[in-house]
Amino acid sequence: MTRIILGSIDLPADLQWSDEFTAWRVGQQARTSLTGALIVQESARQAGRPITLKTSRDGTAYVGVVSLPTLRALQESESEARAAPIDLIMPAHNGGDRSFQVRWRRTDGPAIEVEPTRFAVPALDADLFSITLRLMTV
After folding, report:
1. Backbone angles phi, psi at 71, to 5 degrees
2. Per-residue confidence of the chain (138 residues) as pLDDT tens digits?
3. Which ranges of 36-120 would DSSP assign to H, the alpha helix?
4. 7: left (phi over 0), alpha (psi -120 to 50) or beta
């Protein structure tokens, strides 16, 4: 496979998974007790792995941009309240595919951030956009 598929939305395979190698399996809460002691609780996470997919930029060249119709489909998906998770299929490192069950992650900022690669009014279907998608496994 040479694409990323989020639900039914076809995305470029060269979107960068920026937090792919970041540790996430141990959750931690720290608080201070009434006596001033630090209380730290840790536990193993079963889900909630962050998946941040983003356009990368090398000078003036963008890698992993999307068109306006794709952007609108992403915005529509993000704005839906849904009971079931979304299927995410991505290329694996050594060939093949890997799949995840995900939801939009809104705890670290907006679930979708967008910036045009070239600003023009009005935006046309052929215009390209740099994106950041925040997802998490469930």
Report:
1. -60, -45
2. 578 999 999 999 999 999 999 888 788 889 999 999 999 998 888 888 999 999 998 888 999 999 999 999 999 999 988 889 999 999 988 888 999 999 999 988 899 999 999 888 888 899 999 999 999 999
3. 68-79
4. left
Q: Kindly list the distances between the CA atom of residue 42 and the CA atoms of 12, 55, 61, 85, in Å, as whole numbers in the listed order.
A: 37, 33, 42, 26
Tokens representing residue 51 in the block: 């998946």
Query: In this structure, what token pair is assigned to residue 35?
Result: 């006596």
**19 Cβ contact partners less than 8 Å away, ≥ 6 residues apart:** 50, 51, 52
